[in-house]
């Protein structure tokens, strides 16, 4: 690992100033010279691999007192960005009213990692593309813009079939993000100009012609919290993977339904493991609304989610697998017992 300057921010303004001072105006956030450190479960890994080479680390853990709250009650939920994944996953009201969030966290990483990792760091984690993480491959547009993409004609079994471009097919690896995008979460952001809020759907950028720019955060900006409107007790997160523990998704689905007398009044569906960014399946949602649920509807809805999928040599199986995951998640959500 290369040497770096360690700095400890004791308040949000100090954190923003330290991060902004080291950032060039046109730096993609994830390539900035100064990086925030929370749980460190991704950043330290990538620094050891020499993929990320920050000259300064800004420790934001002292901000946890104000940025780690789990605020439940009423018809909304607010989660501090520095809340630990394990704490949110085990929170009784989140398990009851937002099981899609609790389950997405319980199925992520290992217990040890969940005890360290924060929500903000989790949604900002970088791709697990092996060509991105192995610097012996020079042609990675996400790591070395303009160098090409080794995954296109390489071993691309784990790569994306939705949201790809001719520059990048790396898969977004997270689990929580699918739940947040399905529930119309908002992201609270702190920066040099104060605070702002954006829809979670606007946080991640598809690769397009600039795969090195992964989010819409500006240099120096930090995620401080997430807010979720409404309650979604009828919600499910389902994840298919090569093994049952500590593995990233081959395909996943976050589903939330508002169901009355067997008819779907509202539907939220997001899919993961198959796309370059957290992916909202709006065609699927439109097909489900105002329909009486049955297995045939679930299969048609799953087909709609993958209508625009484009497979490479090794990842075509993800389309068939993804459809089954979506259909099964819908069936589980439609038949689950709701606790009062």
TrEMBL record:
Limits of the FAD-binding PCMH-type domain: 1-233
PROSITE patterns: FAD_PCMH
Matching Gene3D superfamilies: 3.30.465.10, CO dehydrogenase flavoprotein, C-terminal domain, Uridine Diphospho-n-acetylenolpyruvylglucosamine Reductase, domain 2
Protein name per UniProt: Xanthine dehydrogenase family protein subunit M
Listed GO MF terms: FAD binding; oxidoreductase activity
Record keywords: FAD, Flavoprotein
A Pfam short name: FAD_binding_5
SUPFAM superfamilies referenced in this protein's UniProt entry, alphabetically: CO dehydrogenase flavoprotein C-terminal domain-like (SSF55447), FAD-binding/transporter-associated domain-like (SSF56176)
Biological source species: Bradyrhizobium sp. LLZ17
């Amino acid at each position: 690992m290369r040497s770096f300057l360690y700095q400890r921010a004791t308040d949000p303004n100090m954190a923003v100033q330290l991060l902004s001072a080291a950032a060039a105006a046109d730096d993609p956030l994830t390539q900035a010279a100064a990086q925030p450190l929370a749980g460190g479960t991704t950043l330290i890994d990538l620094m050891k691999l020499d993929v990320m080479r920050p000259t300064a680390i800004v420790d934001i853990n002292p901000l946890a007192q104000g940025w780690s709250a789990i605020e439940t009650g009423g018809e909304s939920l607010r989660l501090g960005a520095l809340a630990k994944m394990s704490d949110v996953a085990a929170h009784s009201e989140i398990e009851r009213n937002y099981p899609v969030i609790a389950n997405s966290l319980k199925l992520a990483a290992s217990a040890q990692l969940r005890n360290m990792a924060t929500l903000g760091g989790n949604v900002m984690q970088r791709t697990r593309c092996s060509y991105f993480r192995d610097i012996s491959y020079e042609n990675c547009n996400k790591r070395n813009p303009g160098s090409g993409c080794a995954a296109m004609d390489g071993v691309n079994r784990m790569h994306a079939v939705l949201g790809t471009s001719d520059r990048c097919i790396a898969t977004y690896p997270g689990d929580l993000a699918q739940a947040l995008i399905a529930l119309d979460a908002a992201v609270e952001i702190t920066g040099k100009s104060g605070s702002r809020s954006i829809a979670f759907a606007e946080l991640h950028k598809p690769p397009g012609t600039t795969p090195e720019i992964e989010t819409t955060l500006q240099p120096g900006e930090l995620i401080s919290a997430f807010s979720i409107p409404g309650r979604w007790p009828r919600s499910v997160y389902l994840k298919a993977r090569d093994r049952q523990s500590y593995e990233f998704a081959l395909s996943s689905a976050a589903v939330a339904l508002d169901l009355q007398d067997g008819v779907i009044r509202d539907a939220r569906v997001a899919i993961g493991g198959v796309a370059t960014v957290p992916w909202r399946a709006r065609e699927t949602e439109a097909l489900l609304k105002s329909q009486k649920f049955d297995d045939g509807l679930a299969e048609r809805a799953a087909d709609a989610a993958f209508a625009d999928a484009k497979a490479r040599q090794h990842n075509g199986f993800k389309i068939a697998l993804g459809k089954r995951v979506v259909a099964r998640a819908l069936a589980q959500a439609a038949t689950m017992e709701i606790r009062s």
